[in-house]
Amino acid sequence: xxxxxxxxxxxxxxxxxxxxxxxxxxxxxxxxxxxxxxxxxxxxxxxxxxxxxxxxxxxxxxxxxxxxxxxxxxxxxxxxxxxxxxxxxxxxxxxxxxxxxxxxxx
Length: 106
Description:
The protein has two domains: about 10-70, PAS domain (Beta-Lactamase, 2-Layer Sandwich), CATH 3.30.450; about 75-105. It has three helices and three strands; from the N terminus they run H-H-E-E-E-H. It has helices spanning about 15-20, 25-40, 75-105; strands spanning about 40-50, 55-60, 65-70. The radius of gyration is 21 Å and the shape is elongated.
């Protein structure tokens, strides 16, 4: 599988800031700093405008720096957004029904 047009094996040992300078967001940078400072894994989800994809970033501290695992979660995020829209529609229908029922009740 390729993300950002690269085979995963070609990125081992590479510096992410050098390889993908345009894809580094402030929140991703903060996640990397937090993982280094706390020596605890950090997980963030972000939308990449350049790729038009959602990614889950798992940042793990190691003895040599950081290991970063990227997962394309676009399908899942789109399903979540769709479910949220459906929920909002159903909530609106429920609210209208309740309001109409109150108007009909003497």
